[in-house]
UniProtKB/TrEMBL annotation:
Belongs to the peroxiredoxin family. Tpx subfamily. It comes from the Bacteria. This is Thiol peroxidase. Thiol-specific peroxidase that catalyzes the reduction of hydrogen peroxide and organic hydroperoxides to water and alcohols, respectively. Plays a role in cell protection against oxidative stress by detoxifying peroxides. It comes from Paenibacillus borealis. The active site is at C65. Residues 23-172 form the Thioredoxin domain. SUPFAM superfamilies: Thioredoxin-like. The keyword GTP-binding does not apply. The keyword Secreted does not apply. Its EC number is 1.11.1.24. InterPro entries: Redoxin, Thioredoxin-like_sf, Thioredoxin_domain, TPX, Tpx_CS, Tpx_Peroxidase_subfamily. It catalyses: a hydroperoxide + [thioredoxin]-dithiol = an alcohol + [thioredoxin]-disulfide + H2O. GO terms for molecular function: peroxidase activity.
Length: 172
């Protein structure tokens, strides 16, 4: 049976239900498979040996998600080649590609959880009511251990960019 958590997150003040476990720093990063494009999938193991900063957004076509993805794209150059920044949303891969082209996003890798919501369920961010992934941040070390976890309590708020970036830098 899938774990559900209520009362830990909201959308514009209204409670929402998150599906999956609540992870914490020190936990092993759960494996997942998401879509890289319509024909190709990727998984956590494809980024082995890298520090992974995973930025989760409900949809790139919203203001906060747009700003969050642009911010991490601009920070990517300072983090260097040992860090990969993955933005995961439920947006379809071709919508992600269109958005990235229009926004000039060239350092962040966008991945889609639309097929099976495998990432959302494994990381405890799948919103039951909307079938979107809740805004959150995960920093995973080179050995696939969670070094930083931020679950936002309100879907429309920004994450703590500075703390996430600092957590990634500490692993370098």
């Amino acid at each position: 049976m899938t774990q559900e958590r209520t009362g830990v997150a909201a959308f514009k003040g209204n409670p929402i239900t998150l599906v999956g476990p609540q992870l914490k720093a020190g936990d092993s990063a759960p494996q997942f498979t998401v879509s890289k494009n319509l024909l190709e999938d990727t998984s956590l193991s494809d980024y082995a040996g890298k520090i992974k900063l995973i930025s989760v957004v409900p949809s790139l076509d919203t203001g906060v998600c747009d700003a969050q993805t642009r911010r991490f794209n601009s920070e990517a150059a300072e983090l260097g080649d040992d860090v990969v920044i993955l933005t995961i949303s439920m947006d379809l891969p071709f919508a992600q590609a269109r958005w990235c082209g229009a926004a000039g996003i060239d350092r962040v890798i966008t991945l889609s959880d639309h097929k099976e919501a495998a990432f959302g369920q494994a990381y405890g961010v799948l919103i039951k009511e909307f079938r979107l992934d809740m805004r959150s941040i995960f920093v995973i070390d080179k050995n696939d251990t969670l070094a930083y976890v931020e679950y936002l309590g309100e879907m429309s708020e920004h994450p703590n960019y500075e703390a996430a970036i600092a957590a990634a830098k500490e692993l370098l």
